[in-house]
Write a sequence for this structure.
């Protein structure tokens, strides 16, 4: 991952930061626990060369081990 983001590619300039954010529709409230109250849930990861790589759930910083949001959904590490 670091090579793709931070090293110079032929057609792209090297960058010092990247992020990916996924939005999940939870309008039926099927997410487990505290997440059932949200109609939409966003999960974002920010990567930079110098800092750690935090996760954010609904724009709040979350520990990387915070996988309970996906319990019962069928999503796992390989999904």
């Amino acid at each position: 991952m670091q090579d793709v983001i931070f090293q110079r590619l032929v057609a792209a300039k090297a960058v010092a930061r990247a992020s990916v954010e996924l939005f999940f529709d939870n309008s039926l409230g099927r997410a487990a626990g505290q997440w059932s109250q949200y109609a939409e849930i966003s999960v974002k990861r920010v990567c930079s060369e110098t800092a750690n790589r935090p996760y954010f759930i609904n724009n709040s910083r979350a520990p990387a081990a915070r996988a309970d949001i996906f319990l019962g959904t069928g999503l796992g590490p390989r999904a």
Remarks:
- The mean pLDDT is 76.
